[in-house]
Structures are given as structure tokens and as C-alpha cells.
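Worked example 4.2. Below are the chains of a multi-component assembly; read each line carefully before continuing.
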Amino acid sequence: MSFQTFLQHLVNGISLGSLYALLAIGYTMVYGILRLINFAHGDIFMLATYIAFYSITTFLLPWWAAFLIAIILTALLGILLERAAYRPLRNSPRISIMISAIGASFLIENLAIVFFGGRPKAFPIAPIFSKIVRIGDVSISIVTIIIPIITVIALVILNFIVNKTKTGMAMRAVSKDYDAAKLMGININHIISFTFGTGSALAAIGGIMWALKYPQLIPLMGVMPGLKFFIAAVIGGIGNIKGAVLGGFILGLGEIAIVASSPALSGYRDAFAFILLIIILLVKPTGLLGQNSAEKV
Amino acid sequence: MKREKVIQSLISIAAVIILLVILNKVLTPFQARIFNLGGIYIILAISMNLINGFVGLFSLGHAGFMAVGAYTSALLTMSREAKEMNFFLEPIVPWLLDVQLPFPIAIIIGGLMAALAAALIGAPVLRLNDDYLAIATLGFSEIIRVIFTNTQSLTNGALGLKGLPYIGVTDSPKEAIWWIWGLVIITIVFMVLLINSTYGRAFKAIREDEIAAEAMGINLFKHKMMAFIIGSFFAGIGGALLGHYMNTIDPLLFRYLLTFNIILIVVLGGIGSITSSVISAIVVTIAQELLRVLDGKMQIGSLIINGVPGTRMVVFSALLMLVILFYQRGLMGTNEFSWSWFKKLPFKTKKAKIS
Amino acid sequence: MALLNTDKLTIKFGGLTAVSALDLVINQNEIIGLIGPNGAGKTTSFNMITGVYTPTSGTVVFEGKDITGMKTHEITKLGIARTFQNIRLFGQLSVLENVLIANHMRFGSNLLSAVIKTPSYLKKEKAVYEKSMELLRAVGLDDLKDEVCTSLPYGKQRRLEIARALATDPKLLILDEPAAGMNPQESLELMEFIREIRDKYNLTILMIEHHMAVVMGICERIYVLDYGVKIADGTPSEIQNNQKVIEAYLGVE
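Applying the procedure described above to all three chains together yields the following C-alpha cells:
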């Protein structure tokens, strides 16, 4: 492999990794607070792309307005999802909540099939996103460069919210000790809604960038990526935002490395995430940056 | 007491056989097909209920084990000509070309291969708990699918296998009733005997409280493994039957959606009850068949309504959500069918206990 | 030889040392008390002895065998049974089933014979049923055998936990606050009961208890923990007069 192709792959890997990172954060935030795998996160991600799609094609909005609307609506949908499917079960056995999450995920997917149709739709890409930049001998699409930049910006903002604001402090408190936080007068419902809203907004940002990169929309497009985002979160240590970022990059770079190293292996690309997951869970069950916690007996 | 129970069980089985004879006479071939599909789903639901309902392991790997069973049984029963027709992109591995076993043996080998896969997979993942187990089993089921898509000369890859021999020898749904429902009865009897044994009690103890179960000397890993392997064996059998029933299999059939379908049956019925899995499997299968009209054209009088594909699954996902949100016990919670129902019936309708 | 002894048993959680260099010696047929203020590390010590936690350092020796780091179920099989501070019964199952389950470990039938119900399996099943009923009679719960165990009142749940632990045929029985939530009359009965089962089943008993009347009335020797450190051990009267113990419980002026 020439140095040039290596660079090409590296850039692609970083770009894919930042997408995974951004989306893994949504999983990790929800898990940190509710100890719940939000199986529907991948479907929220799918909805964002369709909202953007219809805003542009049916309502003829400029791309930036469409993206903004998609982000806002998706955040609201995330909040709605938690209210409808998770809040009533907050004190139920975990298996019930998990089934509810799976049920919600299938409901959204099937509603999407009914309303959006099962056939793929081509995502309209504004001309400014389809430019190709050449740096030396490496040619990169502008989207590939934008993705990591947006990810970094989103991370900085999120980091500020979590560490510097009152809401962020409350979020951290709830994730450390749900009951104690409640006793301290934190409005748990607000914090959980806020977490779902933020996580879903990040899913929307990620979804839109995903659509710019892979501009084909189908109702089931969130399933496989959704599982990978979760895996990225687990690899890094679930509940830990830095871990989610780390996990995202490991997964993204790893996948590109597999495809790049041998065409024969590229069919196994989707299996890589799961194999990596199982290895990590066996070697360090709490993930790379996760903390140990023992169950109280 | 014991003797009474044995006699009651034998009467139940005899009653089911008589019912099957009658159904065999009255059902149209189309209805018989749906009835058979219901039977296959019973086997699948019970096998999932053993793992998820009785031991309390949240495993999402069912579709993967079904795939193993289905492919094994398909490759072992197809004729040389059928295999040569299917494998046109890349020839089949030579050692499989001429293998053709009778259908019952192939199905059992299918189950055993699924059990073997479960043993290999269970060793690492059953040490994980709750969420991680769910995602890891789901992952494994996906890995199996990815592997089957890529092993062209063994599974014919994404093209799948076409022309699987139908269940039985005469190619008729009526004969298949006997095969499928025979296996249903065997599965139910086996599970009931297992659940009502000291091992069944150990399984339930693990479900109730892992820490206490281990403190009572129950080897958690060993018992989880047992249930996982047994459940997967029956999942493999169910998968094999499904393959023969559908005549065609490909990796896409064994997506996570298939696992979801079985979860749906188990949850609607009641997690942790064999009886409810049986009833729920039949009801859901028939309902899915009836609601097929939602996806296609409907004619009410002179009015023609164009159905939207996917509506049927919306109904079922919504139903699952409603049950889990508002009526978690499902159809009958963890209760089981028992003859004491009839004894009590004239006096009061009290909840039946596991006898 | 002591039945159980721990040597410099220590466990750290992160930076916190929950139990530090604990030495216990427990002889055959003794009833030993382990007391101390809340958070002193009593339950944590039990968890190390029963294999729930792996100690950071130190050893646990049972009947001359080093059992440090063994799995909980292996330790139970060797003959250490326990109850839990925050009752851990098998909630949805019946009283009888709870006790039957504890017999599984020594049942000795393989899966196949259990499923096809061989004569030898049925014979064992009958023996186990009778043994469990006898234990339920011993704790006075035999007429409640078909009740769902969570429907029992608190005191009866505690007794069921003891019956369940006894069903594993232990040599050492570890009780974590058996008298918690009981009134004085019930506590008295419990003391009597513990003595009885000790004699009847040839047991050795190690218990955590906060009811001083119970501890002083029944234990032959007592260990006192404070902040994870053993501050005293001796007979009840020695402990009652120990200045350090009084300070630990009442605080220093």
C-alpha cells in the first residue's frame, strides 16, 4: 500500500470514527442515567434523515434550515419516546424496559415503512457538500472533512454543558446515584428528558452527516449502525462520554483498516464490531475507560 | 397423586392427537399450512421461553441458532441435482454434494449443530449479565448471518438455498401436520418434565436471584449453559422446520426481525409459562395471517382500500408496546395449564398454580 | 484445629479499605458473634468468607483447606451456608420450592434422568421433599409451604432463609442480622431456635447481630469491628466491659 492510499484510508477512518463517536454519545448518555440500552436510538437517527429529506424535497427549504428543523424535531421525538415508552416502566424489571425499547424500535421502523415507503430514497446533497478537495495526492470529499470538525464542535459544547452548567451537574448526579439525586431535590424527569433531547439532537447531527456520506435512505438504515454505535459506547466504557468517543474512533478506524487490508475480508466488516465487542467484554467487561462497580450484597 | 398426574397427561396428549386427526380432515391445505406454521412457532417460543423466561437470561440470539439449524438440515436433505442448481456462482464443497439424509435425521442434526454453536458462543457470553448478554447474543446472531452470507461454497451466500424438500415425504401440508405437531408434543412434554425437575427449580432460582442461587450452591454458569444449549437445540429444530416449510432460505430471513417475532409471542403470552407460549404462538400466527389484508388490497362492498405494506407489523409492534406498558403479565403470567382448572371451574375461577 | 480461620483478611474498594487485616478463629460448634457500628465491614467480611468478594490480600481457611478466591457455589458445597442481611429469597416461588432449590447442589441426578424421571430420580425427589418438609417444620413454616414466599411476614421470611440455608447441609452457618425487624419476644424465640439447630444439626454458627440482648445471650465469643479493623474479641462479659468497644459505639467525649 502506498503512503498516499494509507493517508486516504486514514482520513476515511477518522471521518467514520467521528460519526460513530458522535452517535455513541447518545447511547452512553442514556445508559449513564437510566441504565437502559435505548434500542431505538438507531431509529431516531433514521428519523432525522427523513425529516431533513422531506424538509428539502417537499417543503423546499434550504439545506441549513432543513438540518436545523431535523435536529430540533428529532430532539423532541427523543423526549417523546422516553415519555411514552420508558417513563411508565422506570420501576419495572429491567427485562420489561428492554422489551419496551425493542418494541419501540420496531414500531418506529414499521411506521417509517408505512409512511416513508420501503423503497430507498436518494438524499439531496447541496452542491457545497459534494466538492472534492485535493491535498497533495490525496483527494477527499468535503463531507469527509466536515464530519470530524462538526464532531469536535459538538463535543466541546457537550463537554461544556455536562461539566460547567447546573443541568450538567444534575445529570452527573443522577447518573452517579439516582435515588440520592432525587432526594437532593433534582427534578429527575427534567434531567432525563434533557438527556434524551440532547442525545437525540446528537443523533440527528450524526444522521444528517451520515446521509451526506451515504446518501441513500431506507427505514431500516438505523438498525445495523445503531448496534454499532452501542458497541462503540460499550467498548469505551458505557456511561462515559470520553469512552464513547474513544470507542467510536477504534471502531471506525478498525472497520476501514479491515476493508483496506483485504477485499476478501470486506464482507466481514459488519462482523468486526461484534467480535471486537465480545473480546472487550471478556477482557475488560466495563470497557476501556469504564469504572468497576460491585453489586451490593 | 403422581399416578393421577401421569394419567391426566396421557389423556391430554390423546386429546391433542384426536384433535389433530379431526383438523387433518377439516382443514383446507391453506389452513393446514398456517396451522403448521403455528406449530413451528410454538417450538421456537418455548425454546426462547426456557432461556429468557425460566432462567431469566435476556438472549437475543434466536435467529442465529435457527439459521444454523435451517442451513444444516437444508444441506443435508437436498438432492445432488438441487444443490448443483443452487450453487451456480461457485460449486458447493465436494463433501456435501452427495450427502442426502432422511428428513428426521437431518432435522435432529440441525438441532445438534445449533446446540454446538450455542456451546461455543455460550462459553464467553454467558458470563456477562443483562444488557451485555443481550447485545452479545444479538451480535453473535448477526455474526452467524454475516458468515453465512460470505461462505459462498458452503451456504450459497446471499443467494440462499431454493427448493428445500417439504416436510415429510408426500409434499402435503396434511402429512406435515403429523411431523410438525409430533415435534411440538415432544418439545412440550420435554420442557414440562424439565421445568418440573430439580434442574427446572435451579433455573427459576437463577431467574429470581442470582446471588442467592449461587449461595445455595447452584453453579450459575453451568446451569445457564445447560438451558442455553437446550433452548438453542430446539431453536435449531424450529429453524430447520421453518426452512423446509418455506422451501427457500437465505441469510436475510434470519435477521433480528425473526427473533423479534418470537419475543412478541413470548411476551404477549406471558414470560415464563409454557402454556401461554403455546396459545400465543397459535393466536399470533393466525392473526398475522389474517392481518395480511392490511398490507394488500381490501374490498369492503364496492369500496376498495389500498393497504400499505408494513401496517401489519405496526399493529403487532404497537400491541407489544401496549402489553409491556399496561399488562406485563401477558395473557397468563407464569401460570400453567393444569387439570385443577376444571375441578375449580364450577365453584370459583381462581388463579391456577404451577402444580 | 479451628473450623474456620481468616488470616489478615483485607479488602480495598478503590482507595477505601473496607476490612483490614482481619483474623478470625472459629472452632467447631461455637456460636460466634460479629458486631460493630454500621459500615464497620461486617457484611463485607461475610462476603469474603463466602466468596462473593475476592479479598485484596489475606486468606480464608476452612477445615484446613484454603478457600480464598473460590467461587461462592464451591464454598457452599464445602459446607458454608449463609443468610442475607436484606433477605434474598426466590421471590415468586413458593416457600417449599425455596427450600427444595437448596437441595439441588447435592441432588446427584444428571439432567437426563431428571427429565425422564428414572426411579432413582423419583426416589431422591421424594427424599428431598421429605427433608425439606422436615426443615420447614423445624422453623414452623410447614403449613405455609405453598405460599409465595414474598407474601410471608418479615420474621417468617428470615426463618425461611435459615431453613433454606440448612437445606444445603452446612457445617458452618453464617447469619447476617437474623433478628433484624423482630420484636423482643421473637428475638428470644430466635435465640432458642439458633441453639436448637446448632445442637440438632451439629453446626457452628457465625452471626452478625445488632440486638445486643441476642448477641450477649447466645454467643460464646464475640468479635468487634470498627472501621474495618478488629478492635476487640472475647466473651460477652469481656466485651461489655471493654473501653474501646464502648467508645466505638458511644463515641468519645
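Take a moment to check your reading of the output against the notes. The mean pLDDT of chain A is 88. The first helix of chain A runs from residue 3 to 34.
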